[in-house]
Amino acid sequence: MTLKRPVIIVCGNPGCGKRLQINQPEKFTRGVVCPNCKFRNSLPELESAPKKAVIDDDLPTAAFSAEDVPTGISSRPKAPSVPSVPGWLIIKDERTATKTFALHQGINTIGRKSYQHVSDHMIDSNDHLMSRPHCTIEVRLNRLGVLDFILRDGVALPQNAQKSSLNGTYLNANEKRLGDQDRIYLRDRDMIQIGMTKLVLITGYLAGSAEQAWQEVSTMEFGKTVDKF
User: Fold this and answer.
1) Residue 181 CB neighbour total at 10 angstroms
2) For residue 21, what are the β-bridge partners?
3) What is the Cα–Cα distance from 4 to 21, expressed in whole angstroms?
4) H or E stretch covering 10
């Protein structure tokens, strides 16, 4: 493969999709690793860059890992394998002790600990602004074979009814609470606030174990707390 001009590719991880510019593609004949999500990408098998190719000079040069990628990979990357544990929610909050919750495929309800109003993942907390339960994350496989993590406020009830939380669900310190009809597709390191408590999502695509997920979160700063309900 002889690629003498810069090459722009889109990360093959459907959950990432970052556009990457490779200024010296001839140095990456065995593939490149996306610095954003660590997905392994192969370069297109072209003899040379098209003469009329348009190169976006505004894109930053991507820094790539020196990891080896097997040769002979198709230019259309396969979807990453589905992790055995879809992901983890980790409490990252100044007021509440750190705890890790393993998500499962399907419906995951999250809320304050209660034996009468049970959630799948219950937080033992004095945060009385948190409902029991408070929000829901649905983990489901999409048509590309990749897990989606879909956040909604409140919980579903029989006959297509819904019970919203009392004080709202917030994402990444945005002061606008999720509406009853909002369905938000989450990404790694998104911060969810329920009541005054904040949690971070780490998917199984980024971390291979609960310990690795915790390490990812431990390096993050405490996010801003929305306090205008």
Assistant:
1) 8
2) 8, 61
3) 13
4) strand 7-10
Three-state secondary-structure class, residue 216: helix
Distance CA 112, CA 122 (A): 5
- Give me 160's structure tokens: 């297509």
Please state the φ and ψ torsions of residue 106, each to the nearest 5 degrees. 110, -150
Looking at the DSSP assignment, which residues form a beta bridge with residue 148? 140
Q: Can you give the pTM of this predicted structure?
A: 0.67
Token code pair at residue 73: 């990979």
Q: Which residue type is seen at 138?
A: E
Work out the number of other CB atoms within 10 angstroms of the CB of residue 98.
11
Residues 33-56 have pLDDT tens digits of 888 877 777 776 544 444 343 334
Assigned token pair, 19: 């556009």
User: Cis peptide before 50, with omega less than 30 degrees from 0?
Assistant: no
pLDDT tens profile 169-196: 999 999 999 999 999 999 999 999 999 9
Residue 26 carries which side chain, given as an amino acid letter? Answer: E
User: Tokens 């690629």, residue?
Assistant: 3
State the Cα–Cα distance between residues 199 and 190, nearest whole angstrom. Answer: 8
- CA 88 – CA 209 distance, rounded (Å): 9
Q: For 151, left (φ over 0), alpha (ψ -120 to 50), or beta?
A: beta
Contact between 87 and 103 under an 8 Å Cβ cutoff? The reply is yes
How does DSSP classify residue 149? E
Among candidate residues 7, 49, 1, 41, the one with its CA nearest the CA of residue 24: 7
Name, in order, each residue with C-beta under 8 angstroms of 5's C-beta and a sequence gap of 6 or more: 25, 48, 49, 53, 55
